[in-house]
Amino acid sequence: MLRVVRPSAAAAEDRGAVNKLELKLYIAGQSLRSRAAQANLQRLLDAGHADYSLSVVDVLEQPGEAEAANIVAAPTLVKSSPPPVVRIVGDLSATTVVMRVLGMDPDDSEVR
Fold first, then answer.
1. pLDDT for residue 102 is more than 60
2. Neighbouring C-alpha atoms within 13 Å toward the C-beta of 107
3. Residue of 88, 13, 8, 83 whose CA lies nearest to 44
4. Which pLDDT band, with edges at 50, 70 and 90, does 17 fall under?
5. Burial letters for 11-31: b for 16+ Cβ neighbours within 10 Å, e otherwise?
6. pTM (two decimals)
7. Within 13 Å, how many C-alpha atoms sit on residue 23's CB side?
8. How confident is the model at residue 18, as a pLDDT?
């Protein structure tokens, strides 16, 4: 079950209204699913006009970082900011769901 929690308008204003997304995408080399996740995420971020910081970690090259973050499957996208921390496992092809989890308005995007 996926649960999306949105802050109130007053809480958003207290935090400065717009928060930069802090994202980390864990991939496994150049597998088909990893490449798809990267492409889908980039397409969503570009179309959603989000302010973001994105790091990509290849778990095959940096297994210690994946272990420290408790990553058990790849690809996994971790949104660490703004709170709450959210993890999405898979190729990120469920566009509407991913955008909502990231706090982006799917109706206000150019994603096709």
1. yes
2. 0
3. 88
4. very low
5. eeeeeeeebebebbbbbbeee
6. 0.78
7. 26
8. 53
